[in-house]
Amino acid sequence: MKKNFNTIVSAEELVQHLDEAGWVIIDSRFRLADPNQGRIDYETAHIPGAVYTHLDDDLSGAIVRGVTGRHPLPQVENITRFFSRLGIDSSVQVVAYDDMGGALAAGRIWWLLRWLGHQAVAVLDGGWQQWMNKGFSVRNGNETRQEREFIPHPRNDLIVTADQVDAIRKNPHYRLLDVRSEDRFRGENEIIDPIPGHIPGAVSAAYADNLNPDGTFRDAKSLHERYLKLLGEVTTDKVVCYCGSGVTATHNIIAMMIAGLGEARLYASSYSEWIADPKRPIEK
Fold first, then answer.
1. Using one digit for the tens of pLDDT, what is the confidence trace for 252-265?
2. Which pTM value belongs to this model?
3. How far apart are CA 179 and CA 78, in angstroms?
4. Which of 243, 255, 257, 276 is catalytic?
């Protein structure tokens, strides 16, 4: 029976499937400060067979200033066409990787596919660095895959809106997790968003604490203990994660699934949308 990976996959496991038509590998390296660098890095060296995706161009929708966050969700029809071009259909195992421990575009790909009903998707544990540290082969240039038909089955119950967040943050039966670094949560060292601080009622749960020093995820037991302390009696169906633009927040959703706690929800537009409306409160 075929084994599906739906949270993370190790480099040792992935290397055994490089030549299989039923596996799609996606390189999603990206730099917020230099959006072209990830594509350059991919063309210089990538995991054999991997295709490239760009966070801004491929995995996000159009920004409406003063309304949306920095990385709004793409339209379903647009991302459906894109996933089809990558050769993804219901039979395919997808593996996404970046060089941020899965905390940038790899987590975004993982979440987008799950949102659209595709369960067989995993993040490469430890990402590009782990692949290189293991000494596995690489390839340069650009690669493409034969197109397949991706059929979306949106799960909009996984998405939380700003109005819902405004209610949830005041409800003790819910937990709103801010996955940014603790200093950004406190409103210190904010270099991305114009208004520092966090959504009132949120709890700091920095994504970096999901990782070991080598960039791999901590083991299930350790993550389970971490999130039990953060959540208390709150179950994951009442947990909402956010970050600056809804990308890194997916990391904590993955971590809770590794921990066996179930699937939390995402405030997809996150803090950069929240602060677009001056009537919404901010706390430091």
1. 999 999 999 999 99
2. 0.96
3. 28
4. 243
For the question of residue 243 being annotated catalytic, the response is yes
CATH number of 8-154: 3.40.250.10
For 200-259, the DSSP string reads TT-EE--GGGGB-TTSSBPPHHHHHHHHHHHHTT--GGGEEEE-SSSSTTHHHHHHHHHT
Burial tier of 213 (Cβ tally within 10 Å: 0-12, 13-18, 19+) = exposed
Per residue in 72-114, pLDDT (tens digit) is 999 999 999 999 999 999 999 999 999 998 888 999 999 999 9
Burial class, 13, CB count within 10 angstroms (exposed 0-12 / middle 13-18 / buried 19+): middle
Same fold for the pair 8-154 and 157-274: yes
